[in-house]
Design brief:
The structure holds two protein chains of two kinds.
Chain A lengths: L2 H4 L6 H19 L6 H13 L9 E8 L2 E8 L10 H6 L1
Antiparallel strand pairs in A: 1-2
Chain B lengths: L2 E6 L7 H14 L4 E5 L7 H5 L9 H5 L5 H4 L1 E2 L6 E4 L12 H13 L4 E5 L6 H8 L3 E6 L3 H16 L2 H5 L5 E9 L1 H5 L6 H8 L2 E7 L3 H8 L10 H13 L16 H6 L2
Parallel strand pairs in B: 1-5, 1-6, 2-4, 2-5, 6-7, 7-8
Antiparallel strand pairs in B: 3-4
Helix pairs in contact in B: 1-12
Classes of the chains: A alpha+beta, B alpha/beta.
The complex binds adenosine-5'-diphosphate and magnesium ion.
Chain lengths: ~90, ~270
């Protein structure tokens, strides 16, 4: 790494790549072998949530955990900052 | 005992054929009887990399359809006595490959006493790639240190764990190995490229080899000589190590560190 690199603000692109891969691989692995309806479920959930809050597609995390004999489907939805919570209701009626 | 090894990746152009040729050649150099099969129907390439393109008379599909015997279609390598190439067909449609047909050819090679059958997979996750991996005992998953290649190879891992004969029969897992290729230690050092450790951690695989990025690969393919035979090349040495690891040896990784730079290069960046 050269001296100039020490002053660089943005993180090196390889660590960005690693972080993105970590998330997408984990997500795809948890959907794998799981029920076929997961992608559709994810899409429909997103539509329902968007009637109320304007969230991004990547704000919804769905995880399927298998623990001794039982499966747990886990959702989490990251809500946007107040300012961005906009008119879900209106747009969904169009 | 014959071991069937598939060289696979999901993504195209990452180095599967280069790897198949060098691994097959390296195994043969160590006295193993090896058949290497091109599963890329319609896009025959392995024959060129092996330098036997003008000796292809019959191909894989001809054997499956009974146009010739397996013996007639196997091309004996000019350099290695114990190495044989089965070329992909160039023109026929992809449906010509069937699981039963593939099984018959593999069984005949097994009965003939081959030690290794190396299956060079086409890209993608469709039928050709599926057939190439279906009967495998082991898989070499070829990955470039780059996001789309890593993601695609993870999908391939999913298929290896569910859509192979071993998986379907509950007959033990396909043994999976990571081969990271087109690796540039300089770029990793600068934080521009995913490192071996990064890829290993994301995919959770054991590393069978790290092959440096090098122009030697192009000159080897120009010449029709598997790059592993270019003894002066770090690529060849890295493939030699991979072959040794496949055969059970434990070796430290080479060519993964940046070459040491002088003072000025370090201060002002390289
Ligand atoms: N270690 C390497 N360094 C530089 N170029 C490489 C290396 N490995 C493969 N290549 C190049 O990448 C391209 C694709 O390789 P190939 O083996 O045909 O990939 P695939 O069979 O996965 O499509 C070729 O042009 C090859 O020369
Ligand atoms: Mg290829």
């Amino acid at each position: 790494m050269g001296l100039l690199a020490l002053f660089r603000r943005t993180p090196p692109s390889a660590s960005v790549a690693k972080e993105r891969l970590r998330i997408i691989v984990a997500q795809e692995r948890s959907a794998r072998g799981g029920p076929d309806y997961l992608p559709l479920l994810r899409r429909e959930l997103l539509e329902v949530i968007r009637k109320y809050v304007n969230v991004d597609p990547d704000a919804i995390q769905i995880n399927l955990d298998r623990e001794e004999g039982q499966e747990v489907l886990e959702f989490s939805v990251a809500l946007p900052e107040k300012a961005a919570r906009q008119p879900g209701r209106k747009s969904s009626r169009q | 005992m014959t071991e069937i090894i598939v060289v696979t990746s999901g993504k195209g152009g990452v180095g599967k054929t280069t790897t198949s040729a060098s691994i097959a050649c390296g195994l043969a150099q160590r006295g193993k009887r090896v058949a290497v099969i091109d599963f890329d129907i319609g896009l025959r390439n392995l024959d060129l990399i092996m330098g036997c393109e003008r000796r292809v008379v019959y191909d894989f599909v001809n054997v499956i359809q009974g146009d010739c015997t397996l013996k007639q279609a196997l091309i004996k390598d000019k350099r290695q006595e114990t190495l044989f190439v089965l070329a992909a067909s160039q023109t026929r449609d992809k449906d010509a490959l069937t699981p039963e047909g593939v099984r018959r050819v593999l069984d005949e090679l097994i009965a003939d006493g081959f030690d290794f059958i190396v299956c060079d997979s086409p890209a993608g996750i469709e039928k050709g790639a599926h057939l190439a991996m279906y009967y495998a005992d082991r898989a070499i998953v070829v990955v470039n240190p780059e996001v789309s290649s890593v993601r695609d190879s993870d999908r391939i891992l999913g298929l290896l764990a569910s859509k192979t004969h071993r998986a379907e029969q509950g007959n033990g897992d396909v043994q999976e190995h990571l081969l990271l290729t087109r690796y540039s230690p300089q770029r990793v050092g600068k934080g521009e490229m995913l490192s071996v450790e990064d890829v290993k951690e994301i995919l959770g695989l054991d590393v069978v080899g790290v092959i440096p990025e090098s122009v030697d690969v192009l000159s080897a393919s120009n010449a029709g000589t598997p790059v592993i035979l270019n003894e002066d090349s770090t690529v060849a040495q890295a493939y030699e190590d991979a072959v040794a690891r496949l055969l059970g040896e434990t070796l430290p990784l080479r060519f993964v560190e940046e070459p040491k730079k002088g003072f000025f290069a370090r201060v002002f960046g390289g």
